[in-house]
Every structure is written in structure tokens, then in C-alpha cells.
């Protein structure tokens, strides 16, 4: 098998997904108009994802978020996951 054909076969699925996404977004744009996309923070899982943002809603700004308090123990509780060596 020629190298060029092998490279094309490897890239074909990615090209197909890109073309499908472009057609899907174009059809959505024609039916709904312009959309605003941005990061949205999910408090339950502690993750962010890109999605459409409704009018009047603000997107998640990572520079405004304090990551320091996420893993800190509450009210002076010790972290039980760290095992200490016996004396």
C-alpha cells in the first residue's frame, strides 16, 4: 500500500467529522441565527465544557475562579487519605 493512500485513510475519519460538524453548524446558524459559545462550569463534577450560552447569561471565566479552595479540608479536618508512618 502506498504511503499517500495510507495517510489518506488515516485522515479520512477526522476529515469526515470536521465536514459533518461544519454542515451541522451551518444548518443551525441558518435556522436559529448567531450563537454565543463559551465555557460553562458544572459544580457537581467540578469540570467545565464548551456549550451554547443563552442571552443575558455569562460564560465561565477561569481567571475569576479560585482553584485553591477546591481540595482544602473544611474546618481544620485532617486529610484521611494520607497515611503517616508509624513512630
UniProtKB/TrEMBL annotation:
Biased composition (Acidic residues): 55-64
Domain of life of the organism encoding this protein: Bacteria
Span list, region Disordered: 53-87
Protein name: Uncharacterized protein
Amino acid at each position: 500500500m502506498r504511503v499517500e493512500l495510507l495517510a489518506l485513510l488515516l485522515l479520512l475519519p477526522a476529515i469526515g467529522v470536521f465536514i459533518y460538524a461544519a454542515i451541522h453548524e451551518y444548518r443551525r446558524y441558518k435556522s436559529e441565527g448567531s450563537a454565543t459559545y463559551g465555557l460553562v462550569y458544572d459544580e457537581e463534577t467540578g469540570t467545565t465544557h464548551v456549550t451554547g450560552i443563552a442571552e443575558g447569561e455569562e460564560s465561565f471565566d477561569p481567571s475569576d475562579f479560585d482553584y485553591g479552595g477546591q481540595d482544602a479540608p473544611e474546618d481544620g479536618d485532617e486529610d484521611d487519605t494520607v497515611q503517616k508512618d508509624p513512630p
